[in-house]
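Render Auxin efflux carrier component in 3D.
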Amino acid sequence: MIGWGDVYRVAAAMAPLYFALGLGYGSVRWWKLFTPDHCDAVNRLVVYFAFPLFGFDFTARAGSFAAGYRVLAADAVAKLIVVLALAGCAAARRAKAATRRGGGGAPSSYSWCITGFSLAALNNGLLVGVSLLDAMYGKWARDVIVQLSVLQSVVWLPLMLVVFEARQAWLEVTPEPADQGAREEGDQEAPGSDVHRPAASRDGRKTAATGCAFWAPLLRAVGVKLARNPNVYASLLGVAWSSVANRWHLKMPSIIDGSIAIMSKTCIGMGMFSMGMFIGLQDKFIVCGLGLTVLSLGLRFIVAPAATVAGALILGLRGDLLRVTILQAALPQSVATFVFSREYDLHAGVLSTAVIVSTLASLPVLTAYYLVLGLVI
């Protein structure tokens, strides 16, 4: 059962996040210490140095424990359900828009599918989940959270990077709409439209680009960029090292361990600092508006657990294991999703709001889930 000491531990883990956020916000909004170019540079520091080293450090230290393959499979099924649901929504909106325009081309929602998947599938399990679920169910629940966090670092975040890079390469070889505005204009648009998607040009460039002569250079460009992005393979290298070290009882040399750790420890703090800088550049603190804020929280706290229930039941999870699997799906939004969305210029305002609000709301929401699940499951 959750005690006041457990609540304090969770609050103590969350408070430093908002301290770093406040420093980043104040350094831009009030003290004018950084320009927009400086803010972009800080975010790139986080993306290309802090996050990959954190991913390696975390997965290398995760330790050897018996993997709960049914839990991992249930998580994969839940994410597949999210992908299918988002793809269905995008296709339906595209068809509706095409009908409304008399059969002509319609704006797609595929960029919103990327953001929707981030909101409904990628959470921050380590800061809140480990302390809270350990208090609720014990050490075995903490091990489940660590396993799922390792899976997210090794599989889901690199796959998101593949999608981001593919979208970026597509935008580079196709013309942009003439009415493109500010970088974050897309955050104010309804999810049924996608201001980031390039429109077809009058000279038929888009039609020609979709032929065989387009796809080979596109795939090559994506492959080269992914090979140069350490986030793609850092966590995988960490798992590989952990497996080898546990098999042959090896220990990382202290000079290497210390070099990695000194950058790894900056990851979450610098990620929140970068988010504060981003918010400081905007006209208001909650960047995306009330409608998208409610939508993002609905995806995080309702859609994600609902998809997880379906995946868990398909895999036959029952009892406390089912409860823990559902609760971890309702953890707050991953900080990494904001950092990457800002780097690739896709709905960073929505993700920043989701991280801030979902982290604040996570303790009462998860406590309510805990009480309800104890009654119905």
